[in-house]
């Protein structure tokens, strides 16, 4: 009877340890693959169709999409500024092209102006926003413009009514997943008066 108990115990241990051991051997070079799916790894590495990095898949205002592919394609609505504090608030609309809700928890980026990419300051999401499937909603981006950007615009383009804005070093958190992009994204033309 004890022999049968020992045999059953060894079979039980073998049925658990065998598959686990085989899996560990298969992924021995990178054990993170045991818990991080290839899709999540692609997003983290910037190789996803959902979150393309740099200018790959991102076109300027003359070519259509700007932002993170079809997921985040902001459209400028309006802006207000406070010249005394060099701050601004911009309203944008975004559309959820997926079949599940998307919650934009945070958005941070460095802004530049003109194709020379003069440092213009930083921008961030004012409040988290949830967008239901197939819906469009507004979000508020706030920021503080650098004195360098204001000096450049006053010195070089005092008659301009709008300025081309680019963002880089973007960090965005959607549904708890944070994605960072080191590429540059063309946001489009923004009214010059937000620079104060």
What does this structure look like?
About 20% of the residues lie in helices and about 40% in strands. By secondary structure, it is an alpha+beta fold. It has two domains: about 1-35; about 35-195, Immunoglobulin-like. Strands 1, 2, 3, 4, 5, 6, 7 and 8 form an eight-stranded antiparallel β-sheet that branches. β1 (about 75-80) and β2 form a beta hairpin. The chain starts with a helix and ends in a 5-residue tail after the last strand. Mean pLDDT is about 75; it is low at about 50-70.
Please tell me the total number of domains. Answer: 2
Total helical segments = 3
Q: What is the average of the pLDDT values? A: 75
- For the record, what CATH class of the largest domain applies? Mainly Beta
End-to-end separation in angstroms reads: 89 Å
Largest sheet: number of strands, sense, barrel closure: 8 strands, antiparallel
Number of strands: 8
- The ordered string of helix (H) and strand (E) elements is HHEEEEEEHEE
Task: Supply the helix-strand structural class.
Answer: alpha+beta
- The percent range for strand residues is 35-45%
CATH architecture verdict of the largest domain: Sandwich
CATH topology of the largest domain: Immunoglobulin-like
Oligomer: single chain
From the spread of the alpha carbons, the general shape counts as: elongated
Instruction: Report the uncertain regions.
Output: 51-70
Rg, nearest Å: 24 Å
């Amino acid at each position: 009877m004890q022999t049968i108990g020992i045999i059953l115990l060894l079979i039980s241990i073998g049925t658990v340890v065998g598959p686990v051991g085989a899996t560990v051997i298969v992924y021995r070079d990178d054990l993170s693959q045991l818990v991080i799916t290839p899709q999540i790894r692609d997003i983290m590495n910037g190789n996803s169709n959902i979150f393309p990095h740099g200018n790959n898949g991102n076109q300027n205002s003359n070519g259509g999409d700007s932002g993170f592919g079809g997921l985040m394609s902001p459209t400028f609505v309006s802006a207000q500024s406070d010249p005394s504090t060099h701050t601004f608030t911009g309203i944008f609309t975004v559309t959820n092209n997926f079949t599940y809700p998307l919650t934009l928890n945070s958005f941070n980026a460095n802004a530049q102006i003109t194709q020379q990419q003069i440092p213009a300051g930083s921008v961030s999401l004012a409040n988290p926003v949830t967008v239901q499937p197939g819906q469009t909603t507004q979000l508020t981006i706030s920021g503080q413009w650098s004195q360098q950007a204001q000096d450049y615009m006053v010195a070089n383009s005092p008659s301009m009514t709008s300025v081309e804005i680019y963002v880089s070093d973007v960090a965005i958190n959607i549904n708890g997943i944070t994605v960072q992009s080191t590429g540059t994204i063309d946001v489009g033309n923004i009214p010059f008066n937000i620079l104060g």
